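Complex record, two chains
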Amino acid sequence: MYSEFSKGIFKENPIFIILLGLCPTLAVSTQVVNALGMGAGVIFVLLGSEIFVSLLKDFIPERVRIPSFIVIIASFVTIVDLVMQAYAPSLSRNLGVFVQLIVVNCIILGRAEAFASKRKLGESVLDALGMGVGFTLGLLLISAIREILGAGTITLVAVGGFDGVIRIPGLSSQPARVLALAPGALLVIGLLKALFNWLEMRRKARAAWAPEEKPAAGVPASAGTPAAGPVPSATGGAS
Amino acid sequence: MSYIGIIITFVFINNFILTQFLGLCPFIGVSRKTDSAVGMGFAVIFVMSMASLATWAVYRLILVPLNIEYLQTISFILIIAALVQLVEMVILKISPPLYKALGIYLPLITTNCAVLGIALIAVRSEYNAMESFVAGIAAGLGFLLAIVVMSAIRERLDKEWVPKPFRGVPIAFITAGLMALAFMAFDKALLKNLLG
């Protein structure tokens, strides 16, 4: 059961591994606080729609399932949009049109179609949480890189006297501003994807090395088993 | 804003892909070959112009008079889904090879953020019917421009040696990033100088 949750975070991370939901990822990743808000919105919509799709899967005719899923998703997006406008107006302004665009975030329709429409409620909930958290973590990583290097700050939620902005000495006076602008987003995701590819290749190369040694050790062993085989049976027979 | 202003804004200054990141999935997915990129570009132009006109009509003539603007997201996405279905049938009828080339990406126009994006942006900017329509065409043209340039670059990249971890998607993103850098030359000042 746990693997249904954790796969969304590492093995099938929506942003870095299966490359879904990139448009909002890149557009809102200028500040860490936007990533948090967007992540929360996506987790809510993903959870709500996977629960509904999973519960309704036996009642929705095959032919109209995509439009039905879209209506379910759009309803949850509307809820998020209205709640955000009411309780977090500045966040809503920062995210702009991208809150409503959660509806076309491929992750959500993708998970509804590929997972929730075939699985039981419990598994769908875990899948939604895992994918949502994985998406949020990916978004946080990209926005942290862009904000720290591009503006020299980390913007979090303002609480009391703390205005929510952490300034990094040395960086905030001379940031690499291009990373905070549009091209920076594309460059950062390209480099990150290359990094993940490289890590994956290294892991595979290691995995390829290890079995190579094992069969090498395994061949004499398997060749040895026929010889070794009779011994226990012989001893067995003797006893 | 004048029509020329809208066109320059959406094709160059606020290019949907390179500055707004709308429609990245098909941009990365269908930009391997130039001819399918061109096909995709025109399909998107058509859907976007129709969608922005249709959503304008529904918003102004139905949602606003009935005071149910909060149904915006749901109604827009349904209109777009229906339109895409129509375009799909038309392309299948007119050009089966093009239909084959676009493959699974055609239904994906529904979940192309660019189409819903232009509809929402047109409403937010309070464009009238004609302005919405022109904005839709212009944003589609911007998409076509970006995807065609991108596919031409990628066709050449295929022949070059690229470090293994960068092959495929990562190098495509970095290429797009460099294109976006070039597009930063177009900004609001350009519009002001051109149109006074």
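Note: DSSP finds nine helices and no strands in chain B.
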